Fold:
Amino acid sequence: MSTLAELPSDVRAGKAEAFGRTHGRELAALGVTQNFAPVLDLLPDIKRNPFDFHTLIGQRAIASDPAVVSAIALAYVRGLEASGVAATVKHFRDWAAAHRHASFQGGARYPRDVLEASDWRPFRDVLAGSNAQLMIGHVNLTAIDPDRPASHSKAVVDGLIRKQWNYQGVIITDDLVMGAIYGHDVCTAVVEALNAGVDSLLVAYDGAQFYRILACASRGGGAGKLDLATLHESEARLQRSMEARPDSISPRVAAQRAGE
Structure:
C-alpha cells in the first residue's frame, strides 16, 4: 500500500479500498475470516536504522505521514470488511522501538503528546472508523507504563486504550513466541495480559507453543490469579465481534455447511 502514498487523496483511497476488496475476496474464498493487516507503524527514517532485519517495518509501512497512513489504511479496512473479512491494525507502539525488536530493552521514550499526534494517530483514526481489531506489541511505552510491555500492561490496555480512547473492540497480543516475551517469564505475561483486558493471545512463530501458553493460563486460573470479571468482559467482546461480522462466507464454507 506504500505505492499509493504519493497519489492524489481521492485516487489513493479508491485504490486502497480496491486492494482490501480483492484481498478480502481471496481470503474469504479460502475460508479465512480474519486478516492480521494493515500495518500502521509509521515509515521510519531508514538512514537511522539501515539494518532492521527483525521487523522489516521499512518494507511494510505505508507512509511516514500519519494522516496519509490513516486515510489509506481506513479505506483498505473498509474494503476487507465489505468482502466479509475482519481487519487487525498493528502494531500498537511507536516505530522507534522497532530498533530493539529482538529484546525491547529500554522501550519507547517519546513523550505522550508526541505519540498522540504521530504514531498513535492512525490507530485512533482507523479504530474509530471501522470494526477493526487491534494488535498490541511488546514495547514498554514508558510514557504510560515503564515497568512492562504494552501487550500486558493494564495501564496501556485498560487505562489508555479502553478508558481514554474508549475502544471496546477486540485486542490481540503480538506473537508471544518472541524474545521480548518468550525469553522471559511467559506465564506472568499471559496472566497480566488477560487481566489487563487483552482478548486473544497470539502464538504464531512456533505453533507447538500454544500448549505452553494454554498451560500458563490454566495454571493462572487454578491459582486464582485471573480476574474473572475481566475475563467475562473479554468473552462478551469476542461474542460481539463475531456477531458484528458480515454474513458473507466463502463458497467452500457454504458448501461444507450445506453438506452437514
Summary: The first helix runs from residue 9 to 29.
